[in-house]
Amino acid sequence: QQESIGMVPGLAVLHVGDTKLSKSYWVSCGFVGIRSFVVHLAEDTTEEKTLECVSSFNDDPCVHGILVELPLPTHMDEHKILNAVSIEKDIKGFHPLNIGLLAMRGREPFFLPQTPKACIELLHRNNIEIKGKRAVVIGRSNTFGMPAALLLQREDATVTIIHSKTKNPQDITRQADIIISAVGKPNMVRGSWIKPGAVIVDVGISYVRDRNARYGFRWVGDICYEEACEVASAIITDVGSEGLLESDMLLSNTLTSAKRIHNFL
Amino acid sequence: QQESIGMVPGLAVLHVGDTKLSKSYWVSCGFVGIRSFVVHLAEDTTEEKTLECVSSFNDDPCVHGILVELPLPTHMDEHKILNAVSIEKDIKGFHPLNIGLLAMRGREPFFLPQTPKACIELLHRNNIEIKGKRAVVIGRSNTFGMPAALLLQREDATVTIIHSKTKNPQDITRQADIIISAVGKPNMVRGSWIKPGAVIVDVGISYVRDRNARYGFRWVGDICYEEACEVASAIITDVGSEGLLESDMLLSNTLTSAKRIHNFL
What fold, for B114-232? Predict the structure, then answer.
């Protein structure tokens, strides 16, 4: 990156407490020429101290993307810490202002939330048309379903969101050209839910016990893979990928941020 | 209002230039005990001067709601002026941060945009259940369709947004328990588009020439009223109402704001 834009994009990762650090992000950084700054604070760090750390990342011109690892210790107000991240560096894209800009026509969000962005990217890379297609998103979480629906909407799909209060969801999915699911219910979407030729993106991951598997369990998606194979024209699944593409999207957001801050966009 | 919360809610209206002022808002103010402050600036006022006026409303403790009349003169940056309105007093609810909060589960917007709010209010007042129902919103404008869809979603409907790129929209509307339309295409939604017993809210308004009408034209909605009457169980239309309920919602937002600012919520 240094050659093309004259500076090194920087990703700051803030990790508080004893939970496992999702190593993949900053390990990948080195490979793509992004500098990573990892700060690890002890479990008993005060909220004030944590906010100071976020604030120093906000002010640091070498940092273009900030990632606060979740969950935070329970004595902290998660919203407060996350809202303290400067919107220009909030590469996760979950800030309400960013979500509002994503929802509005004619406005541009600072960042696209990584997992929905990865899904759309996968559809594009596989030359799957989105414009004018019926798309169904199963699940309406703030971190995936809702932003995924907004993104599909921006791509001119006709979008329906299915959720826990939806009656007869299979009647709706059966009309969809594209189904994106992220609820974490093993094998929920059966073959009979799918229109022949539809494209499925399965982001849901859960584990089920399996005595024959190496560790006594195995990962499964929301889609009943065996049945869907017979009906769908393509199935894109997160199971087994270990979130590599999402991690790429986060690094790509860091690069976008660096370019924007240094007027390369 | 003075008796119940000990102060008078204030609505400031900023009107720049020669376009017609939508009088109904501040005329209604007097009836419901809201104080109105109307500032009229000349067409050739500078952007800077206009921003100063917005800023003085932001700082004024007697003002709880701010309304910038649109359109502004063309030499001004509309986004810039609207974004200058303090989010706590932006009763129209169109600020991207407010829209983001509206889209997110577990978050609360400062204000509900008035026309979508009026629609939901009308459904509630007519005891029409929304939860678990199939709802279709026709049109995806920032000012109506998009926030209406988000509001229906918050009420646990299963929502589909139909727009100009949607193929065979009638196949989708025909499945809907609730249809809300706001596109401004006269008589677009025909009887055959409607499921028997569905509830229709028609917010679209356009005018068509009619030699027999008093002024040579008449107002019509998006719904072909004559045909819809035969199929739908209820039709709520804006035509002829002169936006009275929307105006009420704006005043209700001003009151909400005053209560919030003075800790009555």
Answer: Rossmann fold (3.40.50)
